[in-house]
Amino acid sequence: MSEQFPVPAYLSGVTFVAFDTETTGLFAATNNIVEVGAVRFRLGQDNAETFQELVNPGRRIPADAIRVHGITDEMVALAEPAGPVLERFISFCRPESVLISHHAPFDISFIGCELNRAGLSFGDNPILDTIDIYRRLFPGLYSYSLLSLVTHFGISKSQEHRALSDAVFVRSLFERAAALFPSAGDLASLLAGFTAHRMNEWSGEKVDLPDTYSDLKLALDTKQCLEIIYESPVRGSETRRIWPERIYAQGQSIYVTAFCEKASAERTFRLDRIVDFKLLRADREP
Which CATH fold would you assign to the domain 205-279? Predict the structure, then answer.
């Protein structure tokens, strides 16, 4: 049973979904989700419904990421890819819910990129960030990390760093903070008092490439292979053969998602790091 706090009357009928993701790395455009967890609840009620699914990222999970969340390649081997999992997550959230995350831009960026890759879209649910809420309500704390907050407020002394357990922490933090929300008002005024995000903040935009990328556009349209020289910030210059699948803009950058023969899996490449490319014969499908 969760600790009970006063609930503003105008929030008593609102459905909230606290959610979290675990990933292969820190940058959404070139990494993937490995787990999604969520808790659907109403303030002042003990009952809640949960969502937790592993996701097969289609790539090896780096050792640094495994050290954080403990999710291994073996654990996700039989899991579905992000598309079907996110379809079920969208259904779980429901259109009328207010979503809550800790460090929301991080989770939104990963879910948004995975939605782009799968050709899916999310609803217009507002998304609140418990970091933003706690910085406004409890200024001057030493740290606003999830572990620091749950430790400071006596919720837990440790963090498993799995998606569902972190989502449960987010729920607990939100319930505690809600006791300090204005007692009079409505949901719209409450949302206006915080930074309310939307999932479409990270929806990729279709782009029209200039003529200098005509071979890249041809490879995409006709399902042909490109040989590229890619400047990786980690591995330096390397030659790869890729089968482009989609091109989209995210912020100020343009990305190419493609099947990479070297990785034998889908990968995302930043266009400005492709320093050279040539079209190859379409002698086989990836």
Answer: SH3 type barrels. (2.30.30)
- Residue ranges covered by each domain of the chain: 9-202, 205-279
The CATH architecture to which 9-202 belongs is 2-Layer Sandwich (3.30)
Q: What is the pLDDT of residues 115-166, one digit of tens each?
A: 988 888 899 999 999 999 999 999 999 999 999 999 999 999 988 999 999 9
pLDDT one-digit tens code per residue, 225-241: 999 999 987 788 999 99
Helix (H) or strand (E) holding 66: helix 63-69
d(C-alpha 179, C-alpha 181), whole Å: 6
Nearest to residue 10, comparing CAs of 155, 189, 133?
189
The residue with tokens 């922490």 is: 169
**For the packed helices 130-137 and 163-178, what is the interaxial angle rounded to 10 degrees?**
30
Tell me phi and psi for residue 155, to 5 degrees. Answer: -85, -40
The verdict on whether 161 is a catalytic residue reads yes
Q: Mean per-residue pLDDT for 165-169?
A: 97
Q: Are 24 and 57 in contact (CB under 8 A)?
A: yes
Ramachandran area for residue 270 (φ above 0: left; ψ -120 to 50: alpha; else beta): beta
Whole-structure pTM value: 0.78
CA distance 277 to 272: 12
Q: In this structure, what is the dihedral angle of CA atoms 267, 271, 277, 283, given to the nearest 10 degrees?
A: 40
**% of the chain beyond a pLDDT of 90:** 58
More confident residue, 225 or 8: 225
